[in-house]
Amino acid sequence: MRGPAEVITPADPSAPTGHRAPPSDRRRRTAFGGALIAAFGGFASFNLLLSALPAYAVRSGAGPSGAGALTATLMAATLAVQPFTPRLFTRLGRRRSLAVSGALLGLPCLALPAASSLTALNALAAVRGLGFGIFVVAGVTFTTELYPAAERGRAIGWYGAVVGVAGVLGAPLGIALARQEAYALTFALAASAAGLVVAGSFGFPRESATARPAAPRPPGGKRAPRGTWKSLRPMTGPLLVEIASTTAYGVVFTFLPLTASAAPEALLAAQASSVLARLGAGWLIDRYGGRRVLVPAVLVTALGTAAGSASHEPALLLAGAVLFGAGFGAVQSATLVLAMQAAGDSSAGLGLAGVAWNIAFDAGTGIGSLAGGPLLALGGPSALFVTTGAALAALLIVPTARGPGDPDVRA
Description:
Structural class: mainly alpha
Number of helices: 12
Low-confidence stretches: 1-22, 208-224, 407-411
Number of strands: 0
Distance between the termini: 28 Å
């Protein structure tokens, strides 16, 4: 899924912390290319199993609540490792950190065909969650540090678009293969996609121990909890919106395959519209600021979520999925840019913002997948999707969700 200072951009894209001069264009392009390859592979693997494993768990006798618990386990492990990722990046560097995340994300996929009990599935999901937690913080942080604030929206937009393409391919394919019960093939594809994370890591230069300075620490050697909270407070608004939007994401992607026969087409439409929205939102954010993009994006996401209740109306379901994807993609770009702006441009500030944003993403996804099961069992699709959409829209009236205003980022 990290105190104000002058703008700092690492000269060597592999150096995780410290003050650096801007990187050369060639190194930046190489590092950014590696980040995009890793992003595609990691999220393709994630989306394949996010959409296929719930059906696999139900087939194993777990029921809807067990299917939701499986995704929640993945997110819980992801959340558990994320606070430690800045230290890991300092110790291992970018290349090794990405490679480790790809291995943890992919290797458990090879053991999934032999796992049928919910306990075994949860154990493998936990290992994958550790890899996914390292991977998502690395992707966001490494990409952000390569570019100054005025260019960050477009960089994040391209990164998000690649993530969206991975979803366009991964999520519907996972559902289709699950409905054919081609689980062995699904798991093999997920493992292979995770291998692209390892391949992408080679876009970052090799690092030596002497080239990696220790992460800056406040007096006393440790970051005081009060200091951490003080740094996080300006990000509270964007992070609250991020949690709410990804709660909707967890609901839609976990339970729509269980409630609608047109789920593969709907999720494909959502992912496709998300790709275009992330690219467009990146340009709009750099020109007009994240706040002006965020509010309408939240409303569109809420409306699209509520449309998930139209499980027997394919046309309405597809239209709602397009709205959901467009709104969700714009919300992701806007909340990330706003959190990074609130954190300042120091390496430590960007690292904290990257960790906090990813924790918000994964916490929301876990909440949606865990709480959605009982709500679906109690009230059906209407109660689940309409309630989730209404809760997301209601967040806009909460004062703390508005957060600080945008700095002047206009071109």
